[in-house]
Amino acid sequence: MTEELRLGIYICHCGLNIAAVLDPEALAAQGKKLPGVRVCRHHLYTCSEAGQLEIKKDIKKHRLNRLLVAACSPKLHEATFRRLLVESGLNPYLLEMVNIREQCSWVHAQEPQAAQIKALELIKMGLAKVRFAQPLPTRRVPVTRQALVIGGGPAGLRTALDIADAGFPVVLVERGPILGGMANKLHRTFPQGETALSLINPLMAAVTFHPGIRVLTAGEVTEVSGYVGNFQVTVRREPEMVTAGCDLCGECAQVCPQVVPGEMEEGLSPRQAIYLPSPRAFPARYVVDREHCDGCGRCVPACPRQALDLAAVATHETLSVGAMVVATGFLPFEPRGSRWESWAALDKVLTTVALERLLDPYGPTAGKLLLSGSAIDPRDLAFVLCVGSREEEGNRYCSRVCCPTALKQALELKDRFPEARIRIYYRDVRTTKKDWEELYTRARQAGILFIRGEVTGISRDADGGLVLRAKNELMGGEWEDRLDLVVLAVGMTPGNGLSLKEVLRLPTGNDGFFLEAHSKLRPLETVLDGVFLAGACQGPKDLAETLAQASGAAAKVLGLFAHEAIILDSVICTVDQEKCVGCGTCLQECSYQAVELVESGQGRPHHRGKDQKARIIEAACKGCGACAGACPSGAIIARGFTDEMIFHQIDAALAAEPEKKILVFCCNWCSYAGADFAGVSRFQYSPAIRIIRTMCAGRIHPKFILHAFKLGAGQVLVSGCHPPGDCHYLSGNLKAQTRLDKLRPKLEKKGIDPARLRLEWISATEGRAFQRVVQEMAGQLPKAEKGEG
Amino acid sequence: MKLLICRCPEIPFDLPEMVRQLADAGWRAHLIPPLCTPGGLKQASTLLGKPGEWLLAACEAAAQARLFRHLRKEPQVIEVRGCAALEEAVGVIRLALESPGRPPQATLPSLHQAVLVIGGGVGGCQAALDLANAGLQVYLADSSLSIGGTMAQLDKTFPTLDCSICILGPKLVEVSAHDRIELLTYAQIDKISGQAGSFHVDVTLKPRYVDMSKCVGCGACAEVCPVIVPSRWNLGLKPRKCIRIIFEQSVPLRSTIEREFCIDCRMCAEACDRKAINLEDAPRSRHLQVGAIVLATGARPFDPSIKSEYGYGRIPAVITNLEYERLICATGPTQGSLITVQGREVKSLAFIQCVGSRDRRFLPYCSGYCCTASIKEAVIALEHHPGAQVTIFYNDLRTLGKGFEELYRRAQRAGVRFIKGLPGLIREDGDGRAVVCYEDLLQRGRRELIVDLAVLAVGLQAPSASLPFQDAPPERDASGFYRTRHAILHPLESATPGVFLAGTSQGPKDISETVCQASGAAARVMALFAALRKAR
Lengths: 789, 536
Known about the structure:
- Chain A has 789 residues and is α/β, with parallel strands linked by helices.
- Chain A has 21 helices and 38 strands.
- In chain A, the strands form 13 sheets. Chain A has a five-stranded parallel sheet, covered by helices on one side. In chain A, strands 18-27-21-22-23 form a five-stranded parallel sheet. Chain A has a four-stranded parallel sheet with strand order 2-1-3-4, with helices on both faces.
- In chain B, α11 (404-414) links the parallel β21 and β22.
């Protein structure tokens, strides 16, 4: 470092979030004495305008050239303080955030003294790192102003329309043969009871005929590369066996010998292997169900328009897009294969989705209540709520829409069969939205009976009727109910878009739905810049919420498209040409072909040799540091996470009582976030933990681990994303695994018990797993010392 | 003029009868399957392809979908779904048929590509940011001294128990630092006229008696001010000076004198080394021209003193949930200690749900947020005092957001007691504690529970004040919330074109729903501007 270090340290109380456990004033007093520190202050809320103003003043007055903020997780406020540096005329990368909230005060609430000592050590570790921080150059890249919307249900339709109406081209990819998604199965909506057709079909038609929207049905996103503003997306399209010439005459289906239950009608009516997916949806064209088609070819001559081509093959198309909106929706909970299987298998037990089809004039029975061909005139019928929702095991969440759906359907049945006695078995009636409570009131006024209690069984009695047994919590005791129709109000499950989890590396939460960047303030964004969420793929939602959120996702895309170019993160790798020996190890390690070997003098690609040097192709580099984690000569500079930074962090972490410390290397995306989640959840663990953050577990060079053990570290943990698919850099986690496997025998040779080194996969939502792993490791630390604390 | 009638499932009349009546009047009508289905569209396209003027009896959505843009001339569309009876629908159609030609197009106003966002809570801030990020000029007006709204007053947010101001603070700073957003705080909207594309808005900026350009928010003035009044921002629970910065993270971070209480001692003027105090400050007027307005005016908490059986206002141990939020917040009256304002330690608490909500006498709807908020507050109470007795009285527990059910379970595991049954009465015992009288509907029997603090989870109600719209004020529903143009299809637009809705101005919502809506409203504004640009 050429210039003199002039550091400012700011310790945040975060109200009482930090100050209830730690003493920021004492930390500030100690911080002041550290080398290179010009100012050290504590503030009630450092992130507030007042807190930031104070820092800005200090930067000016004391000509600070590095900043250390000891507060919450960098995931929360790194951007805030980087912006502050820019506004103060400094490079944004001259900042280090020290996480004394999620990883100290929140997780050591019962051990304030140990936490205080740890906090000071964390600050020293941060100081050791920020000393070596260098200004990083900004990278501006152009934005491709075309959007990809994945999913053609209501959310995808609304998002696509809002983006296209603002003047930007949109490609909409839908996996199924038609647009409309689950709305095609819906007859009426709540709370007003309008038909889904009258609400969603105009959107569908508008998207179909919009000049700015290309619809790719029967398409699936199979590959995504690139980054915000510049994604390359490969879409695979199923063979187009029925061409645009189809005029819906239906001759083909009449000759088709294959008959299967139709999924659009919930199996209530059969269809052929060549069929019209829905009479009310776009695009209107017959399709071939390739799974069931045996290729007999009878349909081909039957088609009067020669629109059939059974030899068609799947096609692939690559698109350039600047932003993506994931709107893959949900699947209704499927009772088959669950503990409700035996109920659902009974005759005259339906799901709410199947009932919706029966009530729909466009449905299999043209809106008549027919089961197996015979009309039913229900005298006694019941709805069972929370089927597949709020379970102890399985789907633990509330699906939001089942209560109003059941109320809506019960009211419609009551309207059609005024004599019917309808009851609803519930746990809590959750009609929270403005007009939903009205629906509940109307249902009670209509004489529908609400019984609070768990349904314990449904079976068939001797005369073919149904017997439902339930606990009646309000009246007390068990309850037996004779019925002739039971409707299971099934919840929502994720499902449709899950392949995107792998393709996009998009994380999901504990509930299996896609995870937003922040539950409160960034509900539409994901951890991936330029990828947004709309609708029920993010969690159960009703139609109004879905459409509002879909417009919101469009706003995010439009915000991105308002600019011709955007600025990318500068944390990428470079090569120290003097240290590089041209061995080419980095070439093999890089998953992005971002390294090339060049003639040392001229910069021209050549065969490997002594005078070769590695060079990073900056536009392709993602900054994971996998190359640096393998470089035998320490020639690769992983910006923001350099060797010298990490070595000094290790030194600072293990300066005192190293044998009582557990050094943890966490990858930025999964494990560091997992540790943060443990903090947010207040899962308590040992204060022996010292976390060093890197972008990827693949960044961890074995030399760091050896160094830590040389200094006497008690235990070392390397933690990354779950293999194979969770890693944000394709396979950095597996690279770490390979390196650690090779390292273990070496450790043994050096007389270090390899059991002191652990590798664990911890995702962003596995706070509990993080706690368990570090607690197990803490249990392995030398015990004799424990009594003293 | 020829006529097509869409067989829309939403038209509540007997359509063949309608065709007969029109035939009697000499008009031949074609009845086609719903226009928004492939079958209907195909039939309509074929018919419309024939020469001549066509009238479509269909819905507004069909008109907007612009399904026939491939034709040389799109047909005129009239909406009959809203008609009260068949005769009215026939009348409306005949009127349109017999007076052919499109309704005269109103001359398009000039489009002002700027947006006024009214209300600076989290919804207003998000809408302003999304609009400004997309390149539009935004005015963000708030009647308060600072933006931030109710979220700034909360201690923590559910379900993750994030510190509320910590996550909101940066957003407020981002708003104030954005070069396309002009903040108009302490603002009063005097008049709104005009229409979509061109609204004229008169705004008065109330005097702060402090020069905003000179003040740096150091707070030296408040230190010397001798006048002490209750802090309304802390719901009257904490004293403050007559000159003060409204709260620590306030944006803008500027002092303001509340002139009503000022005694003209001028001590603040002496203490201010920036000479920012100006006791002669006067209101200033602004005139704004904007193309769209986003109403993010929020909701207000139900006043529980009307529900007199709970003793709010009479019994000091009965407080509202917002007061509780201030009480447990580090910047609140007790510096975050869970003690009553009177200084008594709190070892037992009761949270009472549905205060005002789901009550025909007051708010007929469910306010949605309160169950999860109370569970969060109960969990925080246990964090403050691990041994505390915490009870939640509920009717139905409605934890239906992402991660909410998990929070409910966490509270159950942590030892929070849930009792089904809402108290009928709260009275005070001799020690100033609250006696909650209730009937446990699951265990049965009338009981009493004595607690140090009873926290009322009050519902959200629409603000009483209305905005001074000169023409076509946005409609409100029976509860006073702004009515959306359509509950499902247009959840972000008011019935007045060009006026959009974000957050609780439209009905109770939690923070993430508000934020989603705000971004959505921004997208709809952009779509409106794009349409207006195209039309001109």
